[in-house]
Amino acid sequence: MSEKRTDHVVVVGGGVVGLSVAWRAAAAGNRVSLVDPAPASGASYVAGGMLAPLAEAWPGEEELLELGSTSLNRWPDFADELSRAAGLPSGLRTEGTLMFGVDGADREELDNVAGYLAGLGRSVTRLTGRELRRREPSLGPAVRGGLEVPGDLAVDNRLALTALRAAAEAAGVEFIAERAEAVRQGAVELAESTVECDVAVISAGAHSGSLHPALADRIRPVKGEILRLRRRATALPPPTRTVRGPVRGRPCYLVPRDDGGVVLGATQHEVGFDTEVTVGGVRDLLANAETVMPGIAEYALVEATAGLRPSTTDNLPVIGWLEPGVLAATGHHRGGFLLTPVTVDAVLALLRGEEPEPLIKATDPSRLGGQQ
Question: DSSP string of 164-181?
Answer without folding.
Answer: HHHHHHHTTPEEE-S-EE
